[in-house]
Known about the structure:
By secondary structure, the protein is an alpha+beta fold. 25% of the residues lie in helices and 24% in strands. Strands 1-4-3-2 form a four-stranded antiparallel β-sheet. The model has no long low-confidence stretch (mean pLDDT 76).
Amino acid sequence: xxxxxxxxxxxxxxxxxxxxxxxxxxxxxxxxxxxxxxxxxxxxxxxxxxxxxxxxxxxxxxxxxxxxxxxxxxxxxxxxxxxxx
Length: 85
């Protein structure tokens, strides 16, 4: 089940305590990406644009793998010709 932590500051403290850091795509525009960290049996996701004020999503590995599978299949792609990015 997905859990939403109060703020990224809380998640950063949890992750930093384990020596982990949030990773972002090398293709993202600065401060317009999601940060992803693996902690224990969870995957933690934050909005880098919002920094410490970002809500935090925690996924178990099964949920995260389902999301990645769907993303790779194009289920979240914008319609052709969209100028939203």
